[in-house]
Sequence to fold (441 residues):
Amino acid sequence: MPAPRTLAAPALLFCAVAAFAQPPKDAPKTAPPPDEQKAKEAFLAGKLDDAIAHLRAAAKANPALSPPKVVAARWCVETGNGPQARLLIEQAATEDPAHPDVLLTNASFALAEGRVTDAVLGCTAALAATDSARWDADTKKKYQREARLGLAAAFEARGDSASVRTHLAALLDADPRNAALRQRLARTLFLVDKPDEAFAELQAAHKEDPTLDPPQMSMAQLWTAKHDFAKADEWYTKAVAAHPNAAKVHRALAGYLLDRGRLDTAKAHLAAAQKLEPASRDTKALTGLTARYAKDYPAAAAVFEELVRDHPSFGFGVVNLALVLAESGDATGKRRATELAEGYAKQNPRAGEPRAVLAYCLFKAGRTADAEKVARTTAGGALSPDAAYFVARVLADRGATDDAQKILRAASESKDGFVYRKDADDLLADLDKKNPPPPKK
Fold:
């Protein structure tokens, strides 16, 4: 999908063990103990020592709670204080090195930082630590679950689908009605070339939880990610036949068709979604995106203005409005585009895509030197084709022709959706005329 479609804020990549945890189906919701609530209030007031003291009181009353410094470390992550979180988790490890919560939280930090092997080692150690007589049956089961979720996440990051399958299967043995886990297993089966088994798992998941995406639609999206568009077409046809009144199916198909350059057919499915769910945020977002693909910027701006007004934290709306204003706005509109993109980039400092959008908005606003500085912070990273075009456009304007050509050539080979594909192809052709690439060997 094009960068502006997928830029809905990643926020934090993890939140300690919560990154791994998916509560069992029908798990009861409980309010935090009073001391833990006081601790959170103290923490938010900047009183870390008082917060830890309240957490110690809570843990004394209920030894099954997480170690105080583990909880505080998680809160630090939630508020963006990574250095303090790491300090606290090291202190927790010194105090209780074999506690599964310590091991799992440290593993989640490692996974978020891309240290996959450390995450695997930490979760494996946590799984082994559950054998201690220190834990009752329920606590042991909880930590085993979290360790296996962590291992599944880590092996997914590593691309080891066989190991992911092992841990997801074990999780489903303990929680057979968990539809979300079954969806993950289906994806894993698909990745190991077992599409029939994957579809069976998706059917079972949808039967368990009908609010999930229809299985035919999920299969279409899996084939799309694999760039087998003939199979994707086949499964989208099945999805519409099986669920003709599901707006989400029409929206997904319309988005897919947009990415394939089939604008007229996409509009037919957009119309179906508008008829079924006209007030849906996702329907409106697709309406705006369709207008943007068609370069009907006034119509797109009207839709995204409404979305940003009604859903100010909706990253998709913010980014698309920024890009529409950057393309079509007057001086005031271009300045606002830059402000929107800058705010979004600050909210997602670890992601390259928002910085690429910011660089492009700065460029369109005439702040080319600032645009180059931002673009240089994204070049070389993994970017969607559209984000790559944004960076290349800025670099080309600043005279970095070789870098721009290299980025554009890689983007042009992508089979993913690409709003700016024609612009990128035209720019590459122009650069190649001025700076012919060396002959292929």
DSSP finds 24 helices and no strands in the chain. Confidence is low (pLDDT under 50) at residues 1-19, 21-25. The first helix runs from residue 3 to 6.
